[in-house]
Write a structure and sequence with these properties.
disordered C terminus; Cell_Envelope_Assoc; six-stranded parallel β-sheet; alpha/beta; cell inner membrane; elongated; single chain
Length: 241
């Protein structure tokens, strides 16, 4: 009887081991599929990012759990301000979580960008960007965005671009990296899991955005029709007649 039990145990362990290997291979393959489908549309320098009418900036917390300024938030705001000043985009859609009155990512982004001299008219706030999927679905269905530049960290962009493709949004990625980020490996590891989950959202259970609401199309002036920034007068010369 004892040898029979051992035989069944060995068989069970072999089946479990094979299952782990299959799941692992699927996990890696799914991530490689997403990466290979999107990497060609990601630029890592703002000046090289393909011009688009709209820059979609994904919300994140202003502060870290330790109480310091979030370097990922800082990188996104710095990149968004540079894109506007360099005429890489003509409008910014600031999309983030505002699920409670005590946490408002879009307003925080708006205030930060106003402090960087981004004009109020160049920004629209989306208060229902509860996730990457919701942000992109609302950009397409609520704000009428058809072409956009996605502004976020390089490890986030492949998933965001893949979702954009699935939703019919013509998008490119502009990667913004923080100067210092001690825990980036944790976020990158979590992103590998999020990519697999995202494929399930798209192909298996047909995920829908949490909230859409009425259509509010953006009024966008194409970047190639924007006037060049005015050259300030030389302070060393008199401008009087």
């Amino acid at each position: 009887m004892q040898p029979l039990r051992w035989k069944w145990l060995k068989t069970l362990l072999m089946i479990l081991g094979a299952g782990v290997v299959i799941v692992g291979l699927f996990f890696v393959a799914a991530n490689l599929w997403v990466l290979t489908r999107t990497q060609g549309r990601i630029e890592h320098r703002v000046a090289q990012c393909t011009k688009q009418p709209v820059g979609i900036v994904f919300g994140t917390s202003h502060w870290t759990r330790a109480g310091g300024r979030n370097p990922y938030f800082e990188a996104r705001m710095r990149g968004a301000a540079d894109l506007i000043s360099q005429r890489q985009v003509s409008h910014l859609l600031l999309s983030g979580d505002n699920r409670t009155q005590f946490y408002n990512e879009p307003i925080t982004m708006w205030r930060d960008l106003r402090g960087r001299d981004v004009a109020e008219a160049d920004m629209t706030l989306d208060y229902a960007g509860f996730s990457t999927f919701d942000t992109l679905a609302r950009a397409r269905e609520v704000f009428g965005v058809e072409r956009a530049m996605l502004v976020t960290q390089p490890w986030h962009l492949p998933r965001a671009l893949y979702i954009a493709d699935a939703l019919g949004l013509d998008a490119t990625g502009c990667a913004v990296s923080p100067d210092h980020a001690s825990e980036s490996w944790r976020l990158e590891a979590r992103e590998w899991i999020a990519r697999v989950s995202m494929l399930g959202d798209i192909y298996l259970w047909g995920r829908q955005p949490y909230f859409l609401g009425p259509r509010e199309p953006l009024r966008i002036v194409p970047p190639d029709q924007l006037l060049p920034p005015a050259v300030p007068a030389d302070r060393g010369e008199s401008t009087s007649d």
